[in-house]
Amino acid sequence: MDSQLMIENAVRIINMVQYIIMSVFFCRMLCCFLPKKEGYLMDILIFISGVFIPSMVIDPNDMFNVTLAFIWMLLLMLFCFKGSVISKLSVTAVIYPLIIALNLLISEFSLRLWLAGGKSFLLDMAVSIADGLIHILFWYFIYRTFVSKVRQASRLYSQNTWILLGIICLASLVSITVCTYYTPEETYKIWPCAVACMVTNIGSLYLAEYFVNTIRHEMEQNSLKLQRVYYEELERNQAEIRRFRHDMNHHLLIIRDLFDQGDKEAAHAYFQELESQIAPQNRCFCKNSVLNAVLNSKYNKAADSSIDCFFRIDLPEVTAIDQVSLCSIFANTLDNAIEACLKIPEPEKRKISLKARIAENGFFSYEIKNAKINAVTVEKGKYVSDKKNRSEHGVGLTSLQRTVEKYNGTLRISYDETSFTVVILIGNSL
């Protein structure tokens, strides 16, 4: 009897260690999806949840534990992790069916094995240890296989992407819940459903990698576009320099002849006109050379269209915001602003004001305001332009929204009859 008690205590200790190890991998997996909130209390709550939620025993017709697991998982995501409500619901839809399906299968196999072995004490202990090992191996596999994929994906996901991922996993969530609530007498009949749920949700994690590759390809294309703008700007400046160098001897001869004739006023006037023509068109708006090229390109485009531009930019050479994202913010908003100003028939009313800076606390603040006369149309929460090509409607603002969400920033849009304003705030940009 004493030996049996010692074995039970030893198994309890082993199970406790197993649950702790499992909790580590489970919690790390959740933190790959969404960043956890700061604070020791949050760390403790996440760790405790990581011990109990994935190890919760799920039996057929077990409505209490199935419901408890769902509510606990949902509350954990809502209160202990950062991000939008949509992203937290989607993560719940991905992880919850894995927990229920795995634990249901383990419970079923453990029970059948125990009964087949004659309900022996030693077999019961062995099954208990095997149960813990399976949980550890499963969540270790999930964590090691998808840690990089999920971490990259979650940073790039837009709200629509989270919604799509949640919808894909919703079917498995509903099916495994219903099958557990209303299990037939022959419980083995729900095993295929449990396996299908696990395959579906693990497949959704592979789908995350596909989304990441797609988004990364889009960012690379944007990067190439920005580089092309940069080099086109350099080429334009070089062409201007070559042209003025070619004409310089001619201009100098004219000025010399005017001085030889004693017409100093005409020489001075000619020199001033020449000076205005050869004044550098490439302005230095910021220290980032690629962003500066983009700004010069947009500024010159606006100037050619008689748009009065005011740029006040105070940015360091290097920021935590990657170069493609930073240039995308400026390029998309300026394109929209220029497009809106061009619809104003009076050139004197065309105005764009842009202010951007990184404060001492590391916050990136961005504000662009442009004049407008066109009406603003909003459909299903999205801004719709009046472009003839409907495939281009709202593309710029959608890309802008995705960039802001990537850095957990905020985007505010306001407008009235004569102006349109976009304000962006992103924290920890240094």
TrEMBL record:
- By its UniProt entry, which PANTHER family does this protein fall under? TWO-COMPONENT SENSOR HISTIDINE KINASE
Give the keywords, sorted: Membrane, Transmembrane, Transmembrane helix
- Keyword check for Transmembrane: yes
The name of this protein is Sensor histidine kinase NatK-like C-terminal domain-containing protein
Q: Which organism is it from?
A: Blautia hominis
Q: Tell me where the transmembrane regions lie.
A: 12-33, 40-57, 63-81, 93-115, 121-142, 162-183, 189-212
Q: Sensor histidine kinase NatK-like C-terminal domain: which residues?
A: 324-426
Pfam families in alphabetical order: HATPase_c_5 (PF14501)
